[in-house]
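The following block was generated as part of the benchmark described in Methods. Ligand: shikimate-3-phosphate.
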Amino acid sequence: MRIFLIGFMGSGKSTIGQALAEQLGFFFYDTDEMIEAAEERSIPEIFKTKSELYFREKEKETLHQTSNFEKSIIAVGGGTPCFFDNMDWMNDHGITFHLNMSPEGLKQRLENAAGNRPLLKNIDTDELLNFIALKLEERKHFYNLAHFNFNAEEPEDILLKQMKLAISKMTWH
Ligand code: S3P
């Protein structure tokens, strides 16, 4: 079984993914980290020294490397589902879990975490909510194609329970 965690920046994919993997005895992967390791530089550096397009191509290549991962929870970048045919690819190669959050909830989480996110680099604090709301609107269509949708504003233990319940139902069928 392979589960892809998708959702906007700041929706908690890595934190929830690691906790879920630990509780299930699964492996955890983060495609952003895989890209940084392969490129030997951080994502902001990749955007700066190469380009966003270069990053998006690496993102797709990295996603395809997960096709034979077993018993894995794979967190992908917030933009991954929205480029190329990545969303269909994930739906064909695993189960997709979307971590859904409101723009207000995301703003709170992202206010202090913009530094390592190139898309937020030039956004002032007073423009952040508006930026998130617009970007989310653009991306919603892709995120809504996920097999499962979870409210990521729930406390972590409730969210993990809901995810495990969804997984247990899958394995019984
Ligand atoms: C991006 C999200 C980031 C990272 C890159 C681009 C996006 O990942 O892939 O900065 O386009 O939303 P997180 O969602 O893990 O922050």
